[in-house]
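Retro notes, item 3 of 5
We never archived the inputs for the FE2/S2 (inorganic) cluster complex last cycle. Fixing that now. Sequence and ligand:
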Amino acid sequence: MPPAVRHSPPESTPAHVGALPAAWYFDDETLQVELRRLFDSGPSYAGHEALVRRAGDFAALTGEHEGQVLVRDAEGVARLVSNVCRHRQAELVSGRGRTKRLVCPMHNWAYDLAGKHVAAPHFDQLPCLDLATSPLQRWNGLVLAGPGDAAADLAPVAKWPELAAGADYDLVRVDDEVIDLNWKLFMEVFLEDYHVGVVHPGFRNFVDVRQLDAEPDTVRGERFFAENVGVNWPLVKAGSPTFARFQELLLDASRGHKPPYGAVWLAYFPNMLLEWYPYTFVASTYWPRTARETVVRAEVYMDRRIVDERQDLVEATLAVLDEVTQEDLNVCYALSRGREAVWRRGGQESPGPYHQPMEQGLEQFHRWIRNSLG
Ligand code: FES
Ligand SMILES: [Fe+2]
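Structure as it came back at the time:
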């Protein structure tokens, strides 16, 4: 016999006051306040050290850092410099590559990799218009711009040896997309485990979902929520053909050893999602263009040895990431449609309580937003 279900107290009890009003997912005035109070108040992800591994490497950025380029200068220092020429403001470089100088494609003004203006053809005197540079901070291989102190924010995560191991990563793919959804939806779906058993048939068999409901290994700070989820070991029958292939190759590459973790998730508020999977690191950022439109950038890195020796596992890993991402995206759209309907009919229906512990990350995100917006 199923256990008896206890009904919650009537609506408007404090159990669910933390969820955000439906209007906040569609309203551009709310977004303007979010940009000032949430986005401008802390660090923002610019890239991973591995994006510009060698002196001379550059990577033009998108999303939040559109118009800036991450470079590694001749001294080996990673820098974030403006990607806009000081002459007539043309874009200097696109994509990734290697160079000694940033040379404008229009009239060939040139800048060194620290942004210093070094050439202006046909001018008698060099106008000395350097490129603007932004100070950077580093945390565990990540390169971050903006105010605040990432090392202080994320200090509680330092106890997890999985992150401190500092794997030698190579970039394997960058996805850039503009998606017609509010930026918070991506963070919200990532921040709760409640949907994993329902929405992700492949992933739910790979990780230890009992841990999610019982004793999740979590750590949090004011601006982040992190979770460490074990592998369902020994590996059971995969829940999807994509995961079957991935699990088989993973076992082969690790010579049958249990991976140290199934997933380590770190949501760094407001808009950074950092994920570690066996041999893999994914950095995703969500940059709002409007309340209903978000630039999504996802960088996938994998252990360099795997990239060199096991292209089959690289492809299988990308396939499972794509599968899980698509499943999450479907849920994001469902949430957006539902909340838009609520908003259009007056927004009076309040959302339900948070499941503990499976929605604790979501609850913290909502609380942080409410507190920050005052
Ligand atoms: S616009 Fe760059 S050199 Fe003229
Ligand atoms: Fe998910």
